[in-house]
Design a protein that fits this description.
Rossmann fold, alpha/beta, binds magnesium ion, binds adenosine-5'-diphosphate
Length: about 240
């Protein structure tokens, strides 16, 4: 059996790639599959296989499903043939249609020795909260394990609302990060894999010692908090 952990949410900018990067730190042997319009997880190099998705989902739907039929074939084949635990970062506006395909393939994937786990990321944004229940319900049909990560980047989600949405899935929390703008840029361009490789001297010469130190602390905390939020799903992945 090879386990795969899917990080999903149709809403963009909620922290899917952030949690994928944290998962990649937590499970160094894991491979990464990135499904998105453009590749972002560059720092992970050969660990990542990127599958480009078309930007205009409405245009795809307008073809009456024809254009969409084979859309995920390459991804599914990569999943079915993987022999190493894999984390799958599902880009914005893709989760619903991808889950639909996985639902149909549930038996075939099981026969191919694939076990799926799903992490649904929610923020306090109405769009993210609205998408979560249907994704979690859909995941029930093909996933062995379901998790919810509450990303507090836009504030906390009401606790009982969160429990309702989670529908029994295990919940963890990523606290909001107050980040220096340079830390934001480093996280965006280099993820967490570059944090340990930052050159303190070089950073100090560029930003001064005080700010350089703050940038490094911001990034170290962000990385640790994100790894903590993905800890349970990561344990399931290697379990
Ligand atoms: N808890 C948080 N606090 C502050 N910023 C965050 C937090 N989580 C994510 N971010 C930032 O929000 C942006 C969007 O996150 P990203 O992981 O790219 O979202 P997605 O992959 O869902 O589109 C990134 O710049 C990321 O660093
Ligand atoms: Mg992303």
């Amino acid at each position: 059996m090879t386990r795969h952990l899917i990080i999903a949410q149709d809403k963009g900018g909620v922290g899917k790639s952030t949690l994928t990067r944290a998962g990649a730190e937590a499970v160094p042997e894991a491979k990464i599959i990135e499904i998105d319009m453009s590749s972002r997880l560059r720092e992970l190099g050969a660990r990542v296989t990127f599958f480009p998705m078309r930007a205009d989902r409405d245009a795809i739907e307008r073809t009456g499903g024809r254009a969409a039929r084979g859309e995920y074939d390459a991804v599914i084949d990569a999943i079915a043939s993987a022999t190493i635990p894999t984390i799958i970062d599902v880009g914005a506006n893709t989760s619903n249609s991808f889950f639909h395909v996985l639902q149909n393939l549930s038996d075939d994937l099981a026969s191919a020795g694939v076990e799926m786990g799903v992490v649904i990321v929610v923020t306090s944004e109405p769009g993210a909260l609205a998408e979560a229940p249907s994704l979690l319900a859909s995941a029930k049909t093909f996933a062995r394990a379901r998790f919810v990560v509450q990303n507090q980047m836009r504030g906390a989600v009401d606790e009982s609302l969160l429990r309702n949405i989670a529908d029994g899935a295990e919940i963890s929390t990523l606290p909001e990060q107050i980040l220096d703008e340079e830390a934001v840029a480093i996280a965006r361009d280099g993820g967490f894999a570059t944090v340990a490789k930052l050159d303190p001297g070089k950073l100090s010469r560029k930003f001064g010692m005080a700010r350089a130190s703050r940038i490094r602390r911001d990034l170290a905390r962000f990385r640790l908090d994100a790894m903590q939020a993905i800890c349970s799903p990561a344990n399931w992945l290697i379990g």
